[in-house]
Design goal:
Belongs to the bacterial solute-binding protein 8 family. The protein contains 13 helices and 15 strands. The protein has 325 residues and is an alpha/beta fold. Helix 2 (78-86) crosses helix 7, helix 7 (164-178) packs antiparallel against helix 8 (181-200) and helix 8 (181-200) runs parallel beside helix 13. Helices cover 32% and strands 16% of the residues. The protein is globular, with a radius of gyration of 21 Å.
């Protein structure tokens, strides 16, 4: 049986700002720029201005109040690293490996950022406070328990993203709090333009994102997985959440004739090896059209499963679009 995605597993791993899409006009003859051998007009979008502030109620209803613009920020999950990178800020310490990705700081520069000991589930409070942060950003359902220990010493901001719209909202909120409003607007505009381009020519192929470390893997669904929330407008993505205890059987997946598989291998402790390789000997797995046709794509879980911000999602869009052609 394939397990449905649970919040706890994926973390190890609807307010939307109004935007208008302005597509390039076609020629009077009805020929597109592509038909005439000319480069297609780039999709342009407009976004609402962001106003700087030190107090706000975020996209999820969380109140955040700061004495001044934060300069020393500690990230306890990858969305924070994603947002700060978009805003041109480097965290004083982090709890994820996302910054090492070449689309972010890269390995060399990422090594200059301190890592909070204790792992994702239990980051050490003393280590966090040793960096004298103005702001600590964590995942609500995982790091919310740290709030009492941090109270009085710093401000803790609990984020809880579930869709790409949430991620854009958090980007805007962080841009307002840090005063990086122009950078926030630019990042949002770039992401929305890329998403609009991807949605212009949706694929008729069936896609699926699976994650895990062994045969007990789960299906990423749009209701609770940010990367998966992009897929329904790019391809056929017939996977709906069945709740924490729900599951999809391998027979059900076979019945959907999946054309393209995206696989996120989660690594825990000493476990190694790609999930797709571990499943290669399963006779039912081998009957999935994507497997038969060699259209299985191992993707970086730091970006696809954990990043969740506009920079990570831009990478997801590029990789998904290329695979779905």
């Amino acid at each position: 049986m394939l397990r449905a995605p649970s919040t706890s597993v994926r973390t190890l791993l609807a307010w939307t700002v109004a935007a208008s899409v302005l597509a390039g006009c076609g020629s009077p003859s009805g020929e597109s720029a592509e038909d005439k051998g000319e480069p297609a007009a780039r999709t342009e979008v407009t976004v609402e201005p962001i106003e700087a502030t030190t107090r706000l109620t975020d996209v999820n209803g969380e109140k955040v109040s700061l004495e001044k613009r934060p300069e020393r920020i500690v990230c306890l999950f990858a969305l924070c690293d994603d947002i700060l990178t978009e805003l041109g800020i480097v965290p004083v310490a982090t709890n994820s490996a996302l910054l090492a990705h070449p689309g972010f700081l890269g390995e060399d520069k990422a090594e200059e950022v301190d890592v909070i000991p204790g792992g994702f589930i239990a980051p050490e409070v003393e280590a966090i406070l040793s960096h004298k942060p103005d702001l600590v950003i964590g995942l609500g359902d995982t790091h919310g328990k740290l709030a009492p220990a941090l109270k009085g010493a710093t401000t803790f901001w609990a984020m809880q993203p579930e869709t790409w719209q949430d991620s854009v909202g958090y980007l805007r909120d962080a841009a307002a709090l840090t005063g990086r409003t122009a950078e926030g607007e630019k990042a949002e505009r770039a992401f929305r333009a890329k998403l609009a381009e991807a949605e212009k020519t949706p694929s008729d192929r069936t896609a699926l994102i699976v994650y895990g470390s062994d045969e007990n893997f789960g299906v990423a669904t749009p209701e609770g997985d940010v990367a998966a929330s992009l897929l329904p407008k790019m391809a056929r993505y017939p996977w709906k959440s069945r709740g924490v205890e729900g599951s999809y059987s391998l027979e059900e997946i076979l019945a959907q004739d999946v054309d393209v598989l995206f696989v996120e291998t989660m690594s825990f402790g000493g476990e190694d090896g790609k999930l797709s390789e571990k499943l290669a000997g399963n006779p039912l797995w081998s009957k999935i059209p994507a497997v038969e046709n060699g259209d299985v794509h191992e993707v970086d879980p730091e970006v696809w499963a954990k990043g969740r911000g506009t920079r990570s999602l831009g990478i997801v869009l590029d990789e998904a679009a290329a695979a779905l052609r």
